[in-house]
Backbone:
């Protein structure tokens, strides 16, 4: 069976090829999304799709062992297998966080650990699709000389790694002194041209949009709908890992809003093809310092105003003018979604509390967990509901922040779970005394 997909404007419905170098509709300026031939996909029954996706889990048959390309027919079917650039991304652990869940009053709590991926974040899922499509376009004669993105850290790491694997030059625009050292070194190590600009993410985004008006430089930010196609597999994986059952809630940190658009798109596709019979509710979590979606939510999404995002510990979502706002609002309405915000104190302590249960959370996961706690306290989320929190990146990218937390160096944070090392004299008695004080009871 032949499968196919194309771009479609979300406003006027005009169609384009996924190999067109285009990011907005040239008729009305609307955002584009990838649409699939659903009639063709219905040639397999829901049970046949489940069996196929389960069969491909962890296979070494390239590229189908990838969590993304194991669902190739649903993602980007017309890319040739030998053009795919995969680092076997996806298939990340769905962690049963029962200890943390019992502490906060949500016993059936799970964390989708997207940071357990090649470059340490969920951005790998979208970048494998985008870079593979670029590789296909170059093979087919398109004059694409480089790929480029603005980033707060994780996007740049993913783009640089996948572009390096494909042999395609990458140009990275980062806001100076606003990403962690661990994030900064990733694209440097992978050989990208890294430009550290004296501005914020929104300033970098404005420049990369102008750069990519040149069709020889291909835009790799989530305004590009190919990214969404890979990232939508997060929701499909969650349901698959829960034995094809749907959780009551999925909560995720939100900045540029491509992630919520992608999550909803994958789940809606599952419902249309009969793999699930209901949708979860979605909660978007934002920092109080960068909360344009939350401010719009308070108006019932009747008004949207870009803001100047302030410095936040959750640096990857320090975005005041999200490019995927229009798509995200549509998803939130479809999923009866909510938006919550958290303070610096709330996000830092939520991440630290989670770490005490064996995790190692990035600050953005702390934003989602902090929002969960607030939504539970408001009774928006009930204690008997199954909740999945999307952990977007690995905490190792933010170890400097964690050190500052435990040293009590974060000015806006009352570190409730600080656990600095004890400096003792080198004596058996001092060690025994410290162990006795530490042990419970």
Residues:
């Amino acid at each position: 069976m032949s499968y196919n997909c194309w771009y479609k404007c979300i406003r006027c419905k005009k169609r384009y090829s996924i190999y067109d170098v285009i990011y907005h509709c040239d008729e009305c300026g609307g955002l584009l999304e990838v649409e699939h031939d659903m009639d063709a996909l219905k040639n397999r029954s829901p049970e046949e799709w489940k069996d196929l996706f389960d069969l491909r889990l962890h296979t070494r048959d390239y590229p189908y062992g990838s969590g993304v390309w194991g669902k190739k027919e649903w993602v980007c079917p017309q890319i040739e297998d030998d053009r795919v650039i995969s680092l076997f991304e996806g298939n990340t652990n769905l962690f049963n966080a029962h200890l943390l869940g019992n502490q906060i009053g949500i016993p059936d709590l799970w964390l989708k650990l997207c940071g357990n991926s090649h470059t340490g974040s969920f951005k790998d899922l979208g970048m494998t699709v985008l870079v593979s499509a670029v590789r296909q376009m170059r093979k087919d004669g398109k004059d694409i000389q480089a790929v480029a993105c603005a980033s707060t850290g994780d996007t740049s790491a993913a783009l640089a790694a996948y572009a390096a694997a494909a042999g395609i030059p990458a140009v990275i625009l980062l806001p100076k002194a606003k990403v962690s050292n661990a994030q900064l070194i990733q694209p440097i190590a992978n050989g990208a041209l890294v430009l550290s600009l004296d501005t914020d993410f929104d300033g970098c985004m404005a420049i990369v949009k102008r750069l990519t008006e040149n069709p020889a430089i291909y835009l790799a930010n989530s305004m590009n709908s190919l990214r969404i196609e890979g990232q939508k597999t997060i929701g499909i994986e969650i349901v698959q890992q829960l034995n094809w059952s749907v959780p009551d809630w999925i909560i995720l940190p939100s900045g540029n809003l491509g992630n919520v658009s992608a999550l909803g798109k994958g789940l809606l596709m599952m419902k249309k093809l009969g793999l699930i019979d209901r949708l979860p509710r979605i909660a978007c979590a934002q920092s109080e310092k960068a909360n344009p979606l939350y401010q719009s939510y308070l108006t019932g999404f009747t008004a949207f105003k870009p803001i100047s995002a302030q410095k936040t510990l959750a640096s990857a979502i320090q975005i005041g003018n999200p490019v995927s706002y229009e798509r995200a609002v549509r998803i939130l309405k479809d999923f009866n979604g909510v938006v919550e915000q958290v303070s610096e104190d709330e996000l830092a302590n939520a991440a630290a509390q989670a770490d005490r249960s064996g995790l190692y959370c990035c600050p953005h996961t702390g934003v989602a967990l902090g929002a969960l706690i607030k939504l539970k306290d408001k009774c928006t989320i009930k204690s008997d509901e199954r909740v999945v929190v999307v952990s977007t990146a690995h905490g190792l990218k933010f170890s400097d922040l964690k050190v500052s937390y435990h040293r009590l160096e974060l000015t806006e944070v009352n570190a409730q779970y600080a656990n600095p090392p004890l400096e003792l004299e080198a004596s058996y008695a001092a060690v025994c005394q410290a162990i006795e004080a530490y042990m419970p009871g």
The domain at 94-119+228-406 is CATH 3.40.50.1100 (Rossmann fold). The first strand starts at residue 5 and ends at 9. The mean pLDDT is 96.
